[in-house]
Specification:
Layout: E1 10-13, E2 20-21, H1 23-36, H2 55-61, H3 67-83, E3 90-91, H4 95-104, E4 108-116, H5 117-126, E5 135-139, H6 148-158, H7 163-166, E6 170-174, H8 177-186, E7 189-193, H9 200-205, E8 211-212
Parallel strand pairs: 1-4, 1-6, 4-5, 6-7, 7-8
Antiparallel strand pairs: 2-3
Length: 222
Amino acid sequence: MKNSMVKHEYILFDLDGTISKSAEGIRYSLENAIKEMGKPVPDLSDYTLYIGPPLLDTFLNVCHFSKEESVRGVEVYREIYNTKGKFVNTAYDGVEELLAKIKADGKKIAVCSSKYEQFAKEIIDILGLSRYFDAVCGSNLEGDRKDKKDLIPYALKALGTTLEKDRENAVIIGDTFFDTKGAVQTGIDFVGANYGYGDIDKMIEAGGKVFADTPLEIYDLI
């Protein structure tokens, strides 16, 4: 293996706002799911409200649905997203070059997203980036793997290690408070994608210290 500038062995990437520009497809799916539920559509102009949090939380906290309505809202959203929303995705400029450099260094790379896992896999395929990832990890239908503190150990296991064994050798790159919080809760390093949909002040408040303004800047920070 050639000498690498990347110090971490296990590189985890959030998906929306970090790898993919996905806001338009997510907003379309959310708006139409709310309409199909016969509910008023709230102001969705602030992407930070619903890109990053688990989908169930979005229906509970942004749409103010009941728990039962929120569970149904997730189902309706996924139906719409699967047929339309997931195709409205493009990779950020520089992402593929970044992934290629990390891959050439022999590092293990995974998607670590609160998005439903099958959708995450399909989006990575749509973006033409599948060959760079050793694993694509996301939430499940049961909803017990939606927070980053649960997804990070799951992703590391998919890469052939454990949080306990390689905590110091792992890093997650993400654009929201939820990514930062997950890193802090699990004790792994964090790099903030300041070009994404999140709020840098919230990431800093959650413990974020290192940020990249472009995907290619990430390479020197991991």
